[in-house]
Amino acid sequence: MTWKERIPRFTFYLQKTKGNSIFWMKKSDWDHIHGTRKELVKISIEETPLKNIGFEEEFLAAIYNRRGNEIQIYRNDAKDYPLSINKDKYSVVDDIQKTEDISEIIVAGSTCDNENLRDFLKNHILLIKCNRGKDHWLKSIPFEIDAIIRST
Fold first, then answer.
1. How far is the C-alpha of 31 from the C-alpha of 48, rounded, in Å?
2. What DSSP element (H or E) covers 22?
3. DSSP, res 53
4. Domain-wise residue ranges, the chain
5. Shortest CA distance to 15 belongs to which of 134, 127, 99?
């Protein structure tokens, strides 16, 4: 089994421990998307792995929040009326090797700790779906987010 075939095992185990969906993205692609230093940045969801998870019908905006190091997806969900604006959040993990016990995940995920795996982890970021919080259901898009949407 090659190291590329082992990444799904690593991912599956990591997803199991986090309890939420996770997505990998090349760091170079991520750096291109959010290159500005602004605290809140409108990003194109089409340039992320999140593009395929069904937001297109009611998608409103994707914002990168630098302070929270998260992507916020705003979408309209009529079945939640009167709080029909939904905010889904995805944590951005820039360097998983600094935030997780990689050795434990490698053993539990039945993969190998080698140069190829370490290179993959060094050159990719991780997007982890966050649990819904109190701010998931909103009456309207927050003013500062609406201003960003309208300005671009």
1. 11
2. strand 22-26
3. S
4. 3-151
5. 127
Give the contacts of 115 (CB within 8 A, at least 6 positions apart): none
15 versus 40: the higher-pLDDT residue is 40
- What's the pTM value of the predicted model, to 2 decimals? 0.84
For 50, which DSSP code? G
User: 3-state secondary structure string, 66-90?
Assistant: CCCCEEEEEEECHHHCCCCEEEEEE
* Alpha helices, DSSP H, located in the chain: 3-18, 27-33, 96-99, 102-108, 115-122, 143-151
Residue 34 per-residue DSSP state: T
State how beta strands 40-42 and 59-65 pair. Answer: antiparallel
Residue 62 and residue 37: Cα distance in Å, rounded? 17
Residue with tokens 């993969």: 111
pLDDT of 21-56, one tens digit each? 888 899 999 988 876 677 888 998 888 888 877 665
31 within 8 A of 126, measured Cβ to Cβ = no
